[in-house]
Design brief:
alpha+beta; single chain; 3-stranded antiparallel β-sheet; D-Maltodextrin-Binding Protein, domain 2; globular; 18 helices
Length: 478
């Protein structure tokens, strides 16, 4: 027994040694001994100019806030593993990027197991300005058992599915795309484009889900927001889903959808002829989608914008539970979210090097921009960013309106404790992988295969998960 513990300790030590040596963009700490220097871990492709920007950040923060920070970038493929190892070993760090969609380093799991600092008292005390700077729905989504462990990034607060139309064909056939919100609305145009153009009009890929208003609280179990909002159920066995997959199966049989949809990647759309596809996006993402599909596009929202825990914590920054400088870490987080100079420095780089200003709050990129393109959502509120060239100058007002109008799920703030049903959840996920792509894309008969899927999911423990979640949800609502 003691030998096993010793070997485990050696293994953890070895992994941490690899972790530290792997942070290739980490500078040696040359800060003044009387100035607190924070460590901040984030993910993304390591940038050539990260140290140059880090020096500029420290020059600013030392003078204005009396602290400095070391920015550590870890590549996408390594971040989950390295940060999970750091937390599991109880090592100290000050700040780190997290998100609901990460694997081992996701927000809920690591907050629950004590890896992140409870910052509730800070937000209600010294950092009230930070709390008031974010839409309240972000804080609701971040709450776990009455406590908050993350500062969410204030960007789009809801994940919404959109139809994406090829503008060339929209213009050619005078398609009233803004009125197309359902499969029934879409069907006559699929028929016309198929007849006139001789193509598969709908390019569909393996990730398509036939979206309807449903809050998936864990695996596919959650609340049908188009039905009884007090009842826990499963996404795949509700009437809205069954209606949608039945229609999609008809579309596939008519030749309206590419035959390889169950295996197709969304990136494979480039170079193909198509009329419509879909994506999850925010209100400012049309230009990004255009770049991804390499065509001019117009979009129409398919579902209402629903705020869930997952969307509210789509990205954020946490303070490590064992941070030696929690007060200073929160001070820096407040600054990043309320000080436009600091936010733009972190997000865009150095003025005169990576960009130049063309107005009070507009910029254009310089050649060195390619040396520093870190994702903005690693840092703080988008509302403090300058407008990059080509972007509308009212973009943040548009985003504020979108966030304000997004509807909170009735389960916003409820976080399911999976401890007693973790084995069942893993088994359910395996069953879904067997069926979901084939059913979602209309590649197989939905009635027959949903019945098979349901039988296997029930055998895997679906009812146990639903019942446990119902019990916890009912208790949470009291």
């Amino acid at each position: 027994m003691f030998k096993g513990k010793k070997m485990l300790g050696i293994a953890i030590l070895a992994l941490l040694t690899i972790f530290v040596s792997g942070c290739g963009n980490k500078k040696e700490d040359t800060k003044d001994s009387d100035t607190v220097n924070l460590t901040w871990y984030m993910t993304g492709i390591p940038q050539k100019d990260i140290e140059k920007v880090n020096d500029a950040v420290n020059e600013y923060t030392k003078e204005k806030y009396g602290l400095t920070v070391t920015l550590n970038q870890i590549d996408w493929g390594e971040y989950d593993q390295k940060m999970s190892a750091l937390v599991n070993a109880g090592e100290s760090f000050d700040l780190a990027f997290t998100a609901s969609w990460l694997g081992g380093f996701n927000y809920l799991t690591n907050a629950r197991k004590g890896g992140f600092l409870d910052i509730t008292e800070y937000l209600n005390g010294d950092n009230k300005s930070l709390k008031s700077s974010l839409d309240e729905k972000f804080w609701q989504g971040a709450e776990i058992d009455g406590k908050i462990y993350v500062v969410p990034t204030q960007k789009e607060i809801a994940a919404t599915e959109f139809f994406v139309f090829n503008k060339e064909l929209v213009d050619k056939y005078k398609v009233p795309y803004e009125d197309i919100k359902t499969y029934d609305d879409l069907e006559p145009w699929l028929k016309k484009i198929k007849e006139e153009e001789g193509i598969f009009p709908w390019y569909m890929s393996e990730g398509y889900k036939n979206p309807y208003e449903f809050d998936e609280l864990n695996t596919s179990v959650g609340i049908n927001l188009e039905g009884d909002q007090d009842k826990i159920t499963d996404y795949y066995f509700e009437k809205p889903y069954e209606e949608r997959v039945t229609k999609v199966r008809e579309f596939m049989k008519e030749g309206y959808i590419n035959e390889n949809a169950a295996l197709a990647k969304q990136t494979d759309i480039v170079g193909k002829d198509w009329f419509v596809t879909s994506t999850v996006m925010g209100p400012l993402d049309t230009a990004t989608v255009k770049d991804q599909v390499k065509k001019e596009v117009v979009v129409t929202q398919m579902t209402d914008s629903i705020v869930t825990n997952a969307s509210a914590v789509g990205s954020g920054t946490v303070v490590g539970a064992n941070s030696k400088h929690p007060k200073e870490a929160m001070k820096l987080l407040e600054a990043v979210n309320t000080d436009p100079v600091l936010m733009n420095l972190l997000a865009y780089g150095i003025e005169g090097t990576h960009y130049e200003k063309t107005g009070d709050d507009t910029i254009k990129w310089l050649d060195a921009h390619s040396n520093y393109t870190t994702p903005y959502y690693m840092f703080g509120s988008y509302f403090n960013l300058y407008h990059a060239e080509g972007a509308p100058t009212d973009e943040w007002e548009t985003l504020k309106e979108y966030n304000a109008s997004a509807t909170p799920s009735p389960a916003l703030g409820f976080n399911f404790d999976t401890t007693s049903v973790s084995t069942q959840i893993a088994a359910l996920n395996n069953v879904q992988e067997e069926f979901k792509n084939l059913i979602n894309t209309g590649s197989v008969d939905p009635e027959e295969n949903l019945a098979k899927m349901k039988k296997k999911m029930e055998a895997a423990g679906l009812d146990e998960v639903i019942n446990e979640m119902q019990t916890q949800y009912d208790e949470w609502k009291k």
